[in-house]
Design brief:
The protein is of the alpha/beta class. The chain has helices at residues 13-22, 39-49, 58-64, 79-88, 103-116, 130-140, 168-171, 175-190, 303-317, 325-344; strands at residues 4-9, 29-35, 53-55, 69-72, 92-96, 120-123, 147-155, 196-204, 234-241, 246-252, 264-268, 272-275, 279-285, 288-292, 348-349. Helix 5 (103-116) links the parallel strand 5 (92-96) and strand 6 (120-123).
């Protein structure tokens, strides 16, 4: 079998995580071309990883190069156009999360994928962790019983990356669409992908970006534009699903907390579980309450490497994709509903 020709659209920070995966597959993939609006950044990226060609216009790249697989790593506002262009050019696409700016863009993308017959995979990278694999065995095996409530948070004390992440015209929103999307999808995936039916949410923008000096774990690499900061600091929501599950979600860029947190709690009729990040179960046995901690660690796996390896497996071998476009559409419906609820102060039904 010939090598899979790979292209990258957008050479910012997240593209380096994608390259960790592609670099494990150099016996089966060819690093054909990369593209970024910033030529200097694209050339440095190409030199670092060994891409054959450099472009500043992805339409030109797609016209000139016969690409089999494309990672879309742009700011969120360009996800739809870049992904659809790549699909129409005959490439399979891995699009970073969030899938799009809203559900309507996401539906356009899925339609283009369906019409092209190509893979459109969404970057729900938490699905590829060992914790996800372990929890799926417990849930699918009946250990948890019926899941009826879940709590998920992704909270940063001082964590707006700056640049386009804080400008709604480029990002579509703040921590809800950037961070919350990870844990919202993670819980829905673990629960068997139920359909969301309603959401009630609130957002706050009380603290602003860079209110005090401290190190950040993630800083935008975008330069050369005057980006605004007009997104929320904090979002919270309750989401109901057709399975009977209710999810409470919290996400922040800026919040007066001691430490950044990212925990998942699941509550079932037989057991509860907490992922923080290790997995622990809470149940009863022989008339007494017990806490169960599985042997071994859920760490040690590079989830981006696992994600890219799965994507190329889908492209080369036709393996069913575990994070398909339809799940991206459902996530965008949830995010849209939360933002609309926050705007109106009312519960929003999800169709």
């Amino acid at each position: 079998m010939e090598k899979t020709r790979v292209g990258i659209i957008g050479t910012g920070n997240i593209s380096n995580a994608h390259m960790e995966g592609y670099n494990t597959l150099l016996d089966s993939v060819e690093l054909a071309a990369c593209c970024d609006l910033d030529r200097e950044k694209a050339e440095a990226f190409a030199k670092r990883y060994g891409f054959a060609k450099v472009y500043t216009d992805y339409n030109e790249m797609l016209a000139n190069e016969k690409l089999d697989a494309v990672s879309v790593c742009t700011w969120n506002a360009e996800h739809k156009n870049a992904a659809i262009a790549a699909l129409k050019a005959g490439a399979n696409v891995l699009c970073e999360k969030p899938m799009a700016m809203n559900r309507f863009e996401a539906e356009e993308m899925k339609k283009a994928a369906d019409e092209s017959g190509r893979v459109l995979m969404i970057g729900f990278v938490r699905r590829f962790g060992k914790d996800a694999e372990l929890m799926k065995t417990f849930i699918d095996g009946g250990t948890m019983g019926d899941l009826y409530y879940a709590k998920a948070n992704y909270l940063r004390r001082n964590g707006c990356p700056g640049g386009w992440f804080g400008d709604k015209a480029y990002s579509g929103g703040g921590p809800l669409i950037d961070l919350g999307v990870h844990v919202m999808d993670f819980v829905r995936y673990l629960a068997g992908r139920p359909k969301p039916v309603s959401a009630f949410g609130v957002t706050y923008n009380n603290l602003g970006c860079d209110r005090a000096s401290s190190e950040k774990g993630w800083v935008s690499s975008s330069k050369g534009r005057d980006f605004k900061y007009d997104v929320e600091d904090f979002a919270s929501a309750l989401i109901r699903f057709d399975s009977g599950l209710t999810l409470q979600i919290e996400a922040s860029f800026n919040l007066n907390i001691k430490n950044d947190t990212g925990t998942i709690e699941l509550f079932g009729t037989k057991s509860g579980a907490k992922l923080d990040p290790e997995v622990e179960l809470f149940t009863d046995m022989n008339g007494g309450f017990v806490n169960v901690k599985p042997c071994g660690s859920v760490g040690g796996r590079n989830i981006f490497v696992a994600e890219i390896q799965h994507f190329i497996d889908c492209v080369r071998n036709g393996t069913p994709c575990i994070s398909p476009a339809e799940d991206g559409v459902e996530l965008m419906k949830m995010i849209d509903a939360i933002y609309e609820s926050a705007r109106t102060g009312r519960t929003v039904e999800i169709q």
